[in-house]
Every structure is written in structure tokens, then in C-alpha cells.
Amino acid sequence: MAERWVGFAASGASVAVVDADVPDDNDDPIVINADQTWRLQKGDRAEAYDVLYQHCANYLRENGIERAVIKGSAVLAGGKMKLAHLEGAEVRGVIIAAAASVCSVRAVSTAVISRTYGDRKFDDYLKDNGFWSDHTTGGELRIGSRAAAMMLIAARNV
Question: For 86, which of 48, 80, 93, 126 is 20 to 30 Å away at the CA?
Fold first, then answer.
């Protein structure tokens, strides 16, 4: 039987959200229910985080989501931390906290997926149109949301 999961990929100003039915059999494709982008409202970031928190918790609760899988933080290769990276981490934290108030949550880094899922790097899967036609069905999945969907596909095996 399938469970309803949501995959999240956060940036400093928005969150890619993929809502899908995830079958028990890892060989079956996930069924896309919704692919959305939640944008952080303009103005004071603290207020925007509160709105995002409430929106996320309400969405998960109202749609009976059983698990949330969030694209985890990544280590910067050059070691230079920029403001956008820090703001993305803040947004990710808001999503993690909101989701944890409703369902089971797991944050998974792309490095872990690259090591434990298949034989390719995370980004190689995102570029492969054939992979997506084999591993997803149902609603439309935007190219920019593939990272959030990959969280769901890989989380079954990680």
C-alpha cells in the first residue's frame, strides 16, 4: 500500500514541494499528486517564517501526509559561506520544524543519496529525463522540482 509523502527542497526565498503517493515496492514509480513552489513573503523575515511554518504544517495536516523528506544542507566546496546559503538553511529549518509538528521527518543530503542510491551522482539523476519517466507517474513534475521528488524516490532506499 502507498503512503503519502512530501519532498522539500528549500532555498533562501522559496521551497519546492512535491506531494506524492509512495508505493511500498521500490520498483514502482511514485505518483505525483502536486508540485508547488511556496515563496517566502516579502518584508520581515521573522514574519515570513511564521507564515511559511503555518502554511507547511496546515498543508501536511490537511492532506494526511505521513512523511516529509527534506533536502539536507550541503558542504560548500570552496568553503565561502554566502548570505543566500545561510538564508536557505533558515528556510530549511522552518520547514523541518513545521513538518515535525505533523509527521515523521527525515533530512537527507545529496551526498548521502549519491553514495547510497544507484550508481550515479545526485545531479546526474536530475538531468536524466528517462529516469523521471520511469520513476514518476500521475501529475506533472517540473524540472525545477526534481530535487524534491528525488528525496522521495531515494528515501525509500536510504
Answer: 126
